[in-house]
Each structure stands twice: as structure tokens, then as C-alpha cells.
Amino acid sequence: MVRAMAVVVAALAAVFLPLSPAHAAYGPDQPVYIQLKGTDPGNTGLARLEGTIAFDDGDTMFRYAVRLCWLHAYPAPNLRIYVNGGTQIWPVSTGTTSTPGCQMTTLYAAEVAHGAAVANVRFEVTGGWFYPGSQYNTRTKSYTSDNPFT
């Protein structure tokens, strides 16, 4: 009798407990690259962003791993990430490292569950410099990665 009750309870649990969603598979890594330069006569190198992004085949998630090299921008350059051209997500810093030619290199990586279809992700780097003399200028450059599954 006890054994029969255990079987019934297990069968009912299987019917009423939701199934765990299957984890979507990621497509291949796509390169991300931005070379940000000033518009002064020397085309001063301000920052460089490089790394990868991959989209899941369920269209609602992506992961990225990029590094932002601070060249000659003042102050340090910043990174912004936008989903579908509008929703800003905050880049997740995973630390810093030393890279030849860079004042500092900041590492960013995360897996993002957007909750809705992701058509594209845009990375934006902004940096500033002084030219001519004490006139402060800023420049922003972006790179957009399209989701191959949409």
C-alpha cells in the first residue's frame, strides 16, 4: 500500500511540476572591434575595443567577452551596450589587465538574458582629448553585431 501511494505521488508530481526549460545553444563567436581615434591632425588613438559576442538560438540571450584598451583618451574611455538599438545594458567589468601600449585594459564579460527577442547588440565607445590647446573634444564610435538566428 505504501509503495502504491509512493508511485501515485511520483506520477502526480511528474504531471504537475513544470519542466525545466532547455538551455539554448549558442552560435559561433562573432568578432567585436572598434578603433576610436580623435579627429585632430595626428588622429590620436583614444581607445580600442576587441573581443567576441555570441547569440543563443532561442533569440533572447547573448554573451560577450571584450576588452577596452585605454590609449590616450582623457579621462578613461567608457563603454555602453545597447540591445535592439534602444535598451541600454550596463557592461559587467570582470577586472583589469596589462596590455602593451595601453594605459589600462578593462575586461568585460557577461551572459545576458534579455527576456525578449534580440535582433542586434551595439557596442559604443566614447573617449575625449584636448585639441587644439585646451579645447576638450569627445568622440563616440560604435559596432553592431546582428543576431544570425533572427
Topology:
Layout: H1 2-16, E1 30-37, E2 45-55, E3 61-70, E4 78-83, E5 87-89, E6 93-97, E7 104-113, E8 120-130, E9 136-146
Antiparallel strand pairs: 1-2, 2-3, 3-7, 4-5, 4-8, 6-7, 8-9
Overview of this protein structure:
- By secondary structure, the protein is mainly beta.
- It contains one helix and nine strands.
- The chain has one helix spanning 2-16, and strands at 30-37, 45-55, 61-70, 78-83, 87-89, 93-97, 104-113, 120-130, 136-146.
- It has a five-stranded antiparallel beta sheet, with no helix packed on it.
- A hairpin with a 3-residue loop joins β4 (78-83) and β5 (87-89).
- The longest helix is centred in the N-terminal third of the chain and has 15 residues, at 2-16.
- It is elongated and about 50 Å long.
- The protein starts with a helix and ends with a strand.
- Mean pLDDT is 87; it is low at 1-21.
